[in-house]
Specification:
This protein has a single domain (8-158), classed as Sandwich (Jelly Rolls). The protein is 2% helix and 42% strand. It has one helix at residues 155-158; strands at residues 8-11, 13-17, 20-24, 39-45, 49-56, 63-69, 71-78, 89-95, 100-104, 108-114, 119-125, 134-136, 152-153.
């Protein structure tokens, strides 16, 4: 499936030699991201861990996500009611080997499943984390094909709202891309 609704896939520049590798993870001068990033986050997960599907109301976050070590199955769901892609999801495998990153615009729920032990996920956010605006779309309320591992899901994420009941983005003026 091709990216939609402002989602962008970025092939990170990776330089390898006898010492190992060096990767440029974010180049602001390229201006391919229509946001300013203000917060960086990093998680390390065991195989099978599902984190998400997270989003923030009132102060939504765009995210630039990449996998520094291991491999993840990454998913973004469009929650913007005015979007022609409303309710659709996009998935991609990110790994330390394929050097891909995904840009997810504001108005999407985001989550991932770790496909290997000690998968390290690093992501930049366009707004600061705000606990009172934090929401979870129930990870298994859509037909997202999570991988066949024993799933490890936090209590918080198990209590997410199904798609039909979760808060959506209705009044924010989003720019929609094809």
């Amino acid at each position: 499936m091709e990216p939609f609704g402002g989602i962008k896939i970025v092939n990170l520049k990776c330089f390898q030699d006898y010492r190992g590798q060096f990767t440029e993870t974010f180049l602001h001068k390229d201006k391919i991201f229509p946001v300013k990033f203000v917060q960086d986050n990093c998680s390390i997960s065991k195989q099978g861990v599902i984190r998400g599907m997270h989003y923030q109301v009132q102060i939504p976050q765009a995210k630039l996500v990449y996998c520094l070590a291991g491999k993840i199955y990454d998913v973004a769901v469009d929650l913007r009611e005015q979007s022609p892609y409303f309710g659709k999801w996009f998935d991609i495998e990110l790994s330390s080997e394929n050097h891909l990153a995904i840009f997810i615009p504001e108005g999407f729920a985001h989550g991932f499943q770790s496909l290997e032990d000690n998968s390290v996920v690093y992501y930049k956010c366009s707004n600061y984390y705000c606990q009172e605006n934090d929401r979870s779309l129930l990870y298994n309320s859509l037909d997202i094909p999570w991988k066949d591992f024993p799933q490890i899901v936090s209590d918080k994420d198990k209590l997410g709202k199904p798609f039909e009941e979760c808060e959506k983005f209705t009044d924010k003026d989003f720019t929609f891309f094809s």
